[in-house]
Amino acid sequence: MKAKKLSTLLLSTALLLIVATAPGALAAERPNIIWIIVEDMSCDFGYQGQTLVQTPNVDRLAKEGTAFSNAYVSSPVCSPSRSALITGMYQTSIGVQNHYTGRGTIKHHLPAHVRLVPELFKEAGYYTCNTNEGFKGFAKTDYDFEYDMKALYDAPDWSGRKQGQPFFAQIQLRGGKLRNVPAWYDQVKSGLNDLVNEDQVTLPPYYPEDPVFREDWAQYLNSVQYTDKEVGLVLQRLKKEELLDNTVIFFITDHGVSQARGKQFLYDEGTNIPFVVWAPGRVSPGKIRNDLITHIDMAATSLYFAGIDVPEYMQARPLFGPQAQPRDYVVCARDRCDETVDRIRSVRKGNYKYIRNFYPKRPYLQPCLYKDHKPFMKRLRDLHTADKLDAVQALFLAQSRPEEELYDLSKDRWEVHNLAKQPEHLGKLREMRAILANWIIESDDQGRFPESEAAYDSAMKIYIDGMTRRGDTQSAQELQGNINLMKQWKAEGK
């Protein structure tokens, strides 16, 4: 009898241990998950070697966590990038590759089997949030499909959760956009003791040594410093609430800096992003990983840390744990941005970057009202007209582009020496070309089908109606001119 009782007791104890240690068994034991997502910012933080900025808070996350040096976004513009991230799917696979796909009268619905990351957390007992650096109301989503904000998120921040309930929070920071709004940049200047000035700036060689560019780059670097201060506010709150020990923090940007060759394009300035995972006791501190990852991997990795099964359909991969699988390559995709119709794909494998331009007869810098209204773009075009750009700086002003570009990033970090036509690189070119062709089919890249005229017109009407309501008739006329040109080029097969 004693032996039977002892056996029963041991069995009960074992069952209790299994339940207690199963992933997500007790809500209080599961970590909080925070995504800090910064707008319009490339790899220009102190831990990445940028000496002009002071970024102690982000540097701390990198020093105490794991940083990824070869992290890429799947799209270099906000709404497709964020739509991909929140689903763990390539935007091209779920039909939201065009910027602001669902903003018009024609709405977009996700495939029935695709779930949003906050939904998965909510079903697992997490409190879900989406806020900004001041924790003041709901913040940017920019998802290109139909969804219910209130059903997706419980509240802007985690203050209303039940005692011991873990939370999943997205914190949206304005990042590089701080320099685009005078009132915001005044905030930056008043909040920093040491401002970067234009005389200190070293520009990439593909930009002209011009005061307009230098001033813009200085303002951008100051926005990097101010972003770090905002990250510090998040850390301060977590420390005050004694949450740091059981919180996993991801720090990324939604794509690169909004500059001529950055945002919207597939060069590293637009696609290579900071990606830091800070998770005390869960990841190796101070480690720099050089493996290739894509930003959607944050979705699967977050589920892994929370003990939530990663859906089989999800294209994201966990970066830690037994299910982690290294990627041989990463693919980035750019499609329509605002009124500007384009289709570009890139493959990064090893030290090589391959870019395929599907509209080679069009200029790199097609008309785009969003970008053309920025001072540096007007200056760039003026300098080109005046023949004051050198050969490298003039590359991006060409009126047509090669179908294929190939760069060896170990020797050409700025991606200005195209190797695609050189016979000695033919083998590598064919390899990368084949990888992209297979990926397009395997991932069901919806960008291979042109956007319908009805969908395009629906999206454009929203832009023009907004400008008209604001009384900005000049911008509305410029936009309509660009739209007409896109349709003309299409009719000409260009």
Structural class: alpha/beta
Write down the CATH class of the largest domain.
Answer: Alpha Beta
Number-wise, the strands total 14
How many domain modules?
2
- Which consecutive residue ranges, at least 5 long each, have pLDDT under 50? 1-28
Give the N-to-C terminal Cα separation: 88 Å
Strand order of the largest sheet: 4-5-1-6-8-2-9
Kindly estimate the percentage of residues that lie in beta strands according to DSSP.
5-15%
Rg calc:
24 Å
What's the CATH H-level superfamily name of the largest domain? Answer: Alkaline Phosphatase, subunit A
If classified by CATH, what would the architecture of the largest domain be? 3-Layer(aba) Sandwich
Largest sheet: 7 strands, mixed
What's the overall average pLDDT, rounded? 93
- Would you tell me which CATH topology of the largest domain applies? Alkaline Phosphatase, subunit A
CA-based shape: globular
Number of helices: 15
Helical fraction: 25-40%
Q: What series of H and E elements makes up the topology?
A: HEHEEHHEHEHHEHEEEEHEEEHHHEHHH
Oligomer: single chain
Please summarize what this structure is.
The protein is 36% helix and 13% strand.
Task: Furnish the topology, listing elements before pairings.
Layout: H1 2-21, E1 32-38, H2 56-64, E2 66-68, E3 71-72, H3 78-87, H4 117-123, E4 127-132, H5 149-152, E5 167-173, H6 182-191, H7 211-240, E6 247-253, H8 268-271, E7 272-273, E8 275-278, E9 287-289, E10 293-294, H9 297-306, E11 330-334, E12 344-349, E13 352-357, H10 369-372, H11 375-385, H12 391-394, E14 404-408, H13 426-442, H14 453-469, H15 473-491
Parallel strand pairs: 1-5, 1-6, 2-9, 3-10, 4-5
Antiparallel strand pairs: 2-8, 3-7, 6-8, 11-12, 12-13, 13-14
